[in-house]
């Protein structure tokens, strides 16, 4: 178990979002990750794509990817115990992008 999995504001969405297959496991797991990418999106709160389910649907059904590309999505507009919600979307050892920060305005 990773330390972040113990955070009270973590919501485990692994296996609960739309997917068609999965990304291949890395040969050496997390140790083979040489670069980490932080991705920011600025989404209007009332826009149709402002939910993690919409991100997953777009990645799978529009881009043709097997799953959402993000391991973690930080959503500062949704609070759990007074802190920004963190959604754990796919296993960190297979993620394309490790973290996206979604700012809903």
Please give the structural blueprint:
Elements: E1 10-12, E2 38-43, H1 52-62, E3 70-80, E4 83-88, E5 97-104
Parallel strand pairs: 1-4, 2-5, 3-5
Antiparallel strand pairs: 3-4
Report on this model:
By secondary structure, the chain is mainly β. 10% of the residues lie in helices and 32% in strands. The chain is built from one helix and five strands; from the N terminus they run ββαβββ. The chain has a five-stranded mixed sheet with strand order 1-4-3-5-2, with no helix packed on it. β3 and β4 form a beta hairpin. It is globular and about 35 Å long. The model has no long low-confidence stretch (mean pLDDT 78).
In order across it, which strands form the biggest sheet?
1-4-3-5-2
Order of helices and strands: EEHEEE
The N- to C-terminal Cα distance equals 33 Å
User: Helix/strand/pairing class, anyone?
Assistant: mainly beta
Summed up, the helix count is 1
Question: Biggest sheet: strands, sense, closure?
Answer: 5 strands, mixed
What is the averaged pLDDT score?
A: 78
Q: Regions with pLDDT < 50 over 5+ consecutive residues?
A: none
Report the C-alpha radius of gyration, rounded: 14 Å
Q: Please report which band the strand proportion falls in: under 5%, 5-15%, 15-25%, 25-35%, 35-45% or over 45%.
A: 25-35%
Note the overall shape. globular
User: What percent of the residues sit in helical stretches (DSSP H or I)?
Assistant: 10-25%
Number of strands: 5
């Amino acid at each position: 178990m990773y330390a972040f999995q113990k955070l009270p504001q973590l919501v485990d969405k692994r296996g609960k979002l739309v997917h068609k297959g999965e990304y291949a496991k890395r040969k050496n797991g997390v140790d083979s990750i040489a670069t980490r990418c932080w991705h920011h999106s600025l989404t209007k709160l009332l826009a149709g794509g402002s939910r993690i389910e919409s991100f997953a649907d777009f990645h799978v059904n529009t881009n043709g990817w097997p799953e959402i590309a993000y391991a973690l999505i930080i959503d500062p507009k949704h609070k759990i115990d007074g802190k920004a919600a963190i959604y754990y979307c796919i296993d960190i050892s297979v993620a394309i992008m490790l973290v996206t920060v979604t700012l809903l305005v």
